[in-house]
Amino acid sequence: MILLLARTVGAQDLPDLGDASQSTLSQAQELMYGKAIMAQIRSSPSYLHDAEVTDYLNQVGYRLVANCPDPGGHFEFFVIKDESINAFALPGGFIGVHSGLLLTAQSESEFLGVIGHEIAHVTQRHLARMMAVQRKTGLASLAAIAVAILAARSSPQLSQGALAAAAAAPLQAQLNYSRDNEREADRIGLQIVQKSDYDVHAVPVFFERLQRASQIYRGGAPSYLRTHPLTFERIADIQNRVSEMPYRQVPDSLAFHLVRARLTALDGSPSGAVVTFRERISHKKYANEVAARYGYVVALLRQDVLEEVDIAAARGQVDTLLEKAPDDPMILALHAQLEMRAEQTQVGLSIYRQALRLYPTRRSLIYGYSAALMNSGRARAAVEFLDRSLDRVAPDPRLYELKAKAHALQGQQLRQHRARAEALLLKGNLSAAIEQLRFAQASDDGDFYERSAVNARLRELIAVDAQLRRDN
Ligand SMILES: [Zn+2]
Q1: Where along the chain do its domains lie?
Q2: Residue 199: how many CA atoms within 13 Å on its side-chain side?
Q3: 3-class DSSP state for residue 47?
């Protein structure tokens, strides 16, 4: 599926897309479009900003990618808060997964069957070919997105419209893959699932269930079926292939269950979520007990006010969780978060430190520990820790926002604005990043080297901004 936004820009305004005789977009061009679309999607309200869910998705996603016939290339997986069953690939290897897909699949292998199929669309360059063929129409729209994003930086009004469009985007006009593309994605997708040691036999089972559901419900086919038409022929084809593959019973990972519980616990009102999980636990209505208890604590911690009785209930659950899965990163993070909320700062900090020794690149732990350091008046330690973490993991806006906050707590103006500029830049907001660097320049602290670094960075961003304005 390709997202197509309103054609707000005429074809004459489009950036140069290279030689029209090319049959495929270059990977660099594809990535450029993907990044432009992602900048919009990330700022739309349906994008799920949750480190635990995103980490899980990328972990299993990369495991599948590593087992592709032709691995390599850029991949990034993200979740869209939407109860419909869907997954889609964007140019540049960005793969979006609706929370509804994660929650509806009855096993991890079923879920990953769909992801394997999307990965295959990317590795087989179906999008790039389609975009090249549709150069006049489809690609023009994609280019329009990029231009709209660039324009949005200088016009707040246009930016509003673009955001609204991005929110609606996953539902809007899509390009369908050809039958041949579908068949190829099915074939390669199954290979990927098989090589990654998941159960390929789950794949046709899920597709069949999807198809049955589409016949039962009058609301029309699930969105996934609209972009990846599931014909009887296609399902039969998948069943045939699978019948030749060995049967394998693969238990779902604990992370799969925890992530599903987390999605449910984060949905709707906190009190509603608390009731949902309390009932699941008391009536033993769960597929996985650890996940039900985990979801209950996540829901409890969402409440603005945490009563003594909530803390006691949460501690009781966490004790059981730690007995059943002592080294799980999501459970360790939850434990630390609970103790911080219960104002047991030293206990919380020490749980974070212990967990980070096991999982030094885990984003939920990095975010949580640096926030905990700041809450306990150790902003300087937070900056040092964030700098060490930035050497280990890819930069993201949240890391720089935390860094900006830690500098602000120490009254460091220049450093605060400089970190804020990097956060904004990572969010694709160039003009706001430039503004922050100007604030950094105008601040009266910072040594000679820091001031020179700010000036150099500002010159760099201004040059990029000028280039973009010329291209438009
Ligand atoms: Zn497909």
Answers
A1: 11-243
A2: 18
A3: strand
Distance CA(139)–CA(72), nearest Å, equals: 24
How many angstroms is it from 400 CA to the middle of ligand 1?
37
Q: Please give the angle made by the CA atoms of 58, 132 and 77, to the nearest 5 degrees.
A: 5
Give this prediction's pTM. 0.84
DSSP string, 58-110: HHHHHHHHHTSSS--S--EEEEE--SS--EEEETTTEEEEEHHHHHH-SSHHH
C-alpha 62/C-alpha 64 separation (Å) is 5
Question: How far, in Å, from the CA of 127 to the mean position of ligand 1?
Answer: 11
Active-site hit among 76, 186, 328, 401: 186
Query: Cα(89) to centroid of ligand 1, in Å?
Result: 9
* 151-178 pLDDT per residue, tens: 433 334 444 444 444 433 433 334 567 8
pLDDT by residue (tens digit) across 249-278?
899 999 999 999 999 999 999 999 999 999
Q: List Cα–Cα distances, 123 to 70, 118, 126, 154, 176, in angstroms.
A: 7, 9, 8, 36, 17
Q: Decide: 126 and 177 in contact? Cβ < 8 Å.
A: yes
Q: What pLDDT, on a 0 to 100 scale, did the predictor assign at position 216?
A: 55
What Å distances lie between residue 321 and 143, 296, 355, CA to CA?
49, 11, 15
d(CA 188, CA 123): 9
In angstroms, what is the span from residue 176 Cα to ligand 1's centroid? 8
- Give the burial class of 343: count Cβ atoms within 10 A of its Cβ; 0-12 exposed, 13-18 middle, 19 or more buried: exposed
Q: Catalytic: 186? A: yes
Are the CB atoms for 394 and 76 separated by under 8 Å? no
Q: Report pLDDT digits (tens) over 206-247.
A: 988 887 776 655 455 555 666 676 777 888 899 999 998 888
